[in-house]
């Protein structure tokens, strides 16, 4: 089975990295067929709908996923569509939507949707109806580089979750909180599985813990500021997450009864962040020395840092090594670096 993923163009490397991580975590084997800006085509040898459902539920930097039915020159699409056995996949209602992914195509998307809809209507049962609001079969057509890729949508990532859980919409808010979408992506990069333990030693308002809880992890959070600890608990309860441990502690002195499977964190920095007067470099370095003893040997740590901190210096003398990095330009004077670390 070949599937296409429409990726977010918010970032050049994070969407693909997140797909790789979640596929790996959920045990879905695949071969890369095509990678272009905003589009990923994968061949999945062993089809398991439940595995794909779990993948789609976790992703944040992907818009939608569809099973490819036709992949042809865009000028041949209608001819090939006339040959396709639409009655084998459409039995109730359907909708057709065409998306241009570049400016090369001269086709009119509205007319193409109408023509395709007409072809399909002539080849399915009389009981089948067009339903643009809530179709049982949603057909997606992508036009890119002169190619038309048509398929049956098998999943769409909800924007509602990430919109409704923006930091300022939670019961407890503090400036500088990470977006839910990036928090979910960082959680996914660690390959954390349902039921495993994830730690955020600088939990702040709990954004990372919320996203980890949403994918089924057991979450543990600490913060040196008791106000943040109470706020995180309020936010977790608000999101229906009950399997958590959150308490006040300095990340540099943190001790746990058991090692965790993953660590995801966004340590404080900048004007609005509370570092208790500690220089960011020293705080990070001391925290990393503490955290290396709290994660399992095969665990991964995903860390957000400002670009002006030298992570190699921060990790000096620890067992952590950098295996992956992504740079996000926040504004003219700040780039956020997302680093994935493992133990040596």
UniProtKB/TrEMBL annotation:
It is found in: Cytoplasm. One of its GO terms (cellular component) is cytoplasm. InterPro entries: DNA_methylase_N6_adenine_CS, RlmKL-like_Mtase, RlmKL-like_Mtase_CS, SAM-dependent_MTases_sf, THUMP_dom, TrmG10. GO terms for molecular function: tRNA (guanine(10)-N2)-dimethyltransferase activity; tRNA (guanine(10)-N2)-methyltransferase activity; tRNA binding. Its EC number is 2.1.1.213. The keyword Methyltransferase applies. It catalyses: guanosine(10) in tRNA + 2 S-adenosyl-L-methionine = N(2)-dimethylguanosine(10) in tRNA + 2 S-adenosyl-L-homocysteine + 2 H(+). Its main location: cytoplasm. It is an enzyme of class 2 (transferase). Keywords: Cytoplasm, Methyltransferase, RNA-binding, S-adenosyl-L-methionine, Transferase, tRNA processing, tRNA-binding. It comes from the Archaea. GO terms for biological process: tRNA methylation. Pfam families: THUMP (PF02926), UPF0020 (PF01170). Residues 53-154 form the THUMP domain. Monomer. Belongs to the methyltransferase superfamily. Trm-G10 family. NCBIfam families: TIGR01177 family methyltransferase (TIGR01177). Catalyzes the adenosylmethionine-dependent methylation of the exocyclic amino group (N(2)) of guanosine at position 10 of various tRNAs. Acts via a two-step process that leads to the formation of either N(2)-monomethyl (m(2)G) or N(2)-dimethylguanosine (m(2)(2)G). This is tRNA (guanine(10)-N(2))-dimethyltransferase. It comes from Methanobacterium formicicum. The gene is trmG10.
